[in-house]
Amino acid sequence: MSSLFQIFSSRIDQNSPYVLQDPVLIEVAKKYGRTPAQVAIRHLLQCGVVVLSKSFKPQRIKENFQVKYI
Known about the structure:
By secondary structure, this protein is mainly α. The protein contains four helices and no strands. The protein is 53% helix and 0% strand. Helix 2 (23-32) packs across helix 3.
């Protein structure tokens, strides 16, 4: 394990819930007909955060590109 990985992993609470399973995020996604990932990506973009999403599944890649930021 690299030392950089150890530095970042030590700052993450291993007991924290998986973000995309957050009930509020799921509720907002259902309300707007989007996936929880799309809602999370949109929120981060609106906060000025550069989002580097990764996926190898064509459907998820397509969904990520469907996020609109105005």
